[in-house]
């Protein structure tokens, strides 16, 4: 609670370039150390629970981004879910994992090399990121892991690590070289807070390209012809249902946002694109003030002790509404 309160008082930087088109791989440590009961009922269970919440928050804050999952166990890395904007597919695949798969040792280098292979061919105007959730206190690698850090930096891939056990020099160096973050978890609530800090888009590097991007806005409509969905190429043809047709090639898609697999056109809806740009003009942090009487402007809850006032209009809000406005609505209701 205190950490979130402190985070709200930090002024977000404005007038900076942000990587709002994010392609992020989450590498999950599935070694035997994840079965530890230090975070009850187990590190694995807590990680899966927090990741489910993170997926919702990530796409709420980054509607035109994509997320993928890599699992690492037995010294090997496996691409469990390819980059996608389909929240249901991500959650269904996570739900299929259980603690019984946790075995062997963790390999940081193999996880990073797999992420590098999948991210290095992406366009230069997108933000390429890796978030490693690491429980092990060691990494068993086939080569020099520090040389991999330099390759990642050369491809402008930002790597961050959340450690569940203790601070490690190798993780600290990875975050330093690639301009990422490195944090160590204290408890379950702190874990959730640390992961939620990766929902906001990071500043773009000077090496990031500035390109005009072709975007289409396909309407959601009933498709009467039997056709295959490019999102699920192995499924049977769909006879009648609603979906989206690419404006350029006519390929069928289940949901937006998406990148057409046929013509590579970026498909989004207008509200999603508008939500993506709200990070460029963030709601300024409210100022904490002492309050002895009065009510919250938003929820009418009586204020006692501490409130948070908008710098523009002077309206006073409670802590819960302050969190809601800055993390979800991104606008002061009294100002509008």
How would you describe this protein?
It is found in: Nucleus. One of its GO terms (molecular function) is zinc ion binding. This is VWFA domain-containing protein. Residues 23-179 form the VWFA domain. Pfam families: C1_4, Ssl1. By secondary structure, this protein is α/β, with parallel strands linked by helices. It has 3 domains: 19-196, Rossmann fold; 215-276, no CATH class; 282-329, Herpes Virus-1 (2-Layer Sandwich). Helices cover 28% and strands 21% of the residues. It is built from 9 helices and 15 strands. It has a 6-stranded mixed β-sheet, with helices on both faces. A hairpin with a 6-residue loop joins strand 11 (258-259) and strand 12 (266-267). The chain is globular. The protein starts with a helix and ends in a 7-residue tail after the last helix. The mean pLDDT is 87.
Contiguous runs where pLDDT drops below 50 for at least 5 residues: none
Number of helical regions: 9
Strand order of the largest sheet: 3-2-1-4-5-6
Structural class: alpha/beta
Structural domains: how many: 3
Q: Look up the CATH topology of the largest domain.
A: Rossmann fold
CATH architecture of the largest domain: 3-Layer(aba) Sandwich
> Mind telling me the CATH class of the largest domain?
Alpha Beta
Secondary-structure element string: HEHEEHHEHEHEHEEEEEEHEEEH
Radius of gyration: 22 Å
Biggest β-sheet description: 6 strands, mixed
Overall mean confidence score, pLDDT: 87
Give the overall shape, derived from the CA principal axes: globular
Beta-strand proportion: 15-25%
